[in-house]
């Protein structure tokens, strides 16, 4: 399969889209096609529109997903159904892709992800030699998100390094000023589930057992922080909507139909 990309691409960078078959809240979601094409295809096309990666690969554990992905032109790597997380699946794919040194994890259920965000997380890792991993966040605009455990919050230092991720409100504002507009200037940020890893850090991360903070919050990126890793973080202004539930998918289908 051809891997020719734009002149801006880095030959050492590959986007890996982990796509597992099992999904508790929305069964077989990667293959849902109420819009006329599989959900996974939208994510693949968005990833292909990014300019800074040399290739896009779908990593899956199921032959039906593999067949669908090959049908819309994707390169496929088969991985074990025992992979516990998307990161583990990306690490398993990395072992079959020795020609690459930077791996971008674009979750398969992010059909509306911005190609520019993918390019930004790649650039951020390239610009941050001390970091083994890079990710993105966006300002929280809805106060209700602070108490929503599905909205993962992140705090970072002045150098753009992640300090902590939580499902709870962080930071806690002890003495809020009711006269100020919400989150102006921003101190609350929503983490976006988009990652770029250097190969060595991805291998180290995937070989470690789950950490105590990871088990408490159910956030795997805390394993890397708790074991001394550095995560570079940048802020973007918009977040895409992941597809986790039937309601999420119905809203996505509605948006696609309105778009034409």
The H-and-E topology, N to C, reads as EHEHEHEHEEEEHHHEH
What structural class should be given to the helix and strand makeup? alpha/beta
Number of helices: 8
Strand order of the largest sheet: 3-2-1-4-8-5-9
| Architecture (CATH level 2) name | Alpha-Beta Complex
Give me the CATH fold name: Spore Coat Polysaccharide Biosynthesis Protein SpsA, Chain A
Q: What ranges have pLDDT less than 50 throughout 5 or more consecutive residues?
A: none
Quick one: overall form? Answer: globular
Name the CATH superfamily assignment: Spore Coat Polysaccharide Biosynthesis Protein SpsA, Chain A
Radius of gyration: 18 Å
Quote the beta fraction: 15-25%
* Largest sheet geometry: 7 strands, mixed
CATH domain class name: Alpha Beta
Number of strands: 9
Helix percentage? 25-40%
Average of per-residue pLDDT values:
93
Query: Oligomer, anyone?
Result: single chain
Word description of this protein:
This protein has 260 residues and is an alpha/beta fold. The chain has a single domain, classed as Alpha-Beta Complex (Spore Coat Polysaccharide Biosynthesis Protein SpsA, Chain A), CATH 3.90.550. Helix content is 30%, strand content 22%. A hairpin with a 5-residue loop joins strand 6 and strand 7. Helix 3 packs across helix 5. The protein starts with 9 loop residues before the first strand and ends with a helix.
Q: TL;DR?
A:
This protein is of the alpha/beta class and 260 residues long. 30% of the residues lie in helices and 22% in strands. It is globular.
């Amino acid at each position: 399969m051809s891997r020719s990309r734009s002149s801006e691409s880095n030959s050492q960078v590959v986007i890996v889209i982990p796509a597992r078959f099992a999904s508790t809240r929305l069964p077989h979601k990667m293959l849902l096609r109420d819009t006329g094409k599989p959900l996974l295809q939208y994510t693949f096309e968005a990833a292909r529109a990014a300019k800074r990666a040399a290739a896009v690969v779908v990593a899956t554990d199921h032959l039906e997903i593999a067949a669908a992905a090959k049908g819309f032109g994707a390169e496929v790597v088969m991985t074990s159904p025992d992979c516990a997380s998307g990161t583990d699946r990306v690490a398993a794919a990395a072992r079959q892709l020795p020609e690459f040194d930077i791996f971008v994890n674009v979750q398969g259920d992010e059909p509306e992800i911005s190609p520019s965000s993918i390019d930004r997380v790649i650039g951020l890792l390239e610009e941050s030699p001390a970091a083994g991993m890079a990710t993105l966040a966006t300002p929280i605009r809805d106060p209700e998100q602070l108490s929503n455990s599905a909205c993962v919050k992140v705090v970072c230092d002045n150098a753009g390094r992640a300090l902590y991720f939580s499902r709870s409100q962080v930071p806690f504002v002890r003495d809020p000023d009711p006269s100020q507009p919400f989150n102006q200037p921003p101190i609350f940020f929503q983490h976006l589930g988009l990652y770029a890893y250097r190969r060595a850090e991805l291998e180290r991360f995937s070989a470690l057992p789950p950490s105590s903070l990871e088990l408490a919050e159910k956030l795997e990126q805390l394993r890397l922080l708790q074991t001394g890793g550095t995560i570079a973080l940048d802020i973007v202004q918009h977040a895409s909507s992941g597809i986790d539930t039937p309601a999420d998918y119905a809203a996505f289908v509605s948006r696609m139909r309105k778009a034409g």
